[in-house]
């Protein structure tokens, strides 16, 4: 009888731990998805800024060239 009670308590304890871990796992997965979206957004912004920088460098080159002439 005591062994059965101990087994039930152990099973309940493992169930509670599993539920807590499952909840934590879902939270971490949501955080990872949010971070992936943020990284994608930042990558797009970086690409845009690099393009803008290249355009500005080209414009500066032509302005200097025209000024020297």
Automatic annotation (TrEMBL):
Keywords from the named record: Coiled coil, Intermediate filament
Record's keyword annotation contains Coiled coil: yes
Entries under InterPro entries matching the protein: IF_rod_dom, Keratin_I
GO cellular component, one term: intermediate filament
Single annotated GO MF: structural molecule activity
Domain of life, per lineage: Eukaryota
Record's signal peptide: none
Presence of the UniProt keyword Coiled coil in the record: yes
Domain named IF rod: residues: 1-69
Full protein name: Keratin, type 1, gene c5
């Amino acid at each position: 009888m005591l062994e059965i009670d101990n087994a039930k308590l152990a099973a309940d304890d493992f169930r509670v731990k599993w539920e807590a871990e499952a909840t934590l796992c879902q939270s971490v997965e949501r955080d990872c998805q949010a971070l992936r979206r943020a990284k994608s957004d930042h990558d797009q912004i970086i690409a845009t800024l690099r393009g803008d920088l290249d355009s500005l460098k080209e414009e500066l080159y032509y302005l200097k060239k025209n000024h020297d002439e």
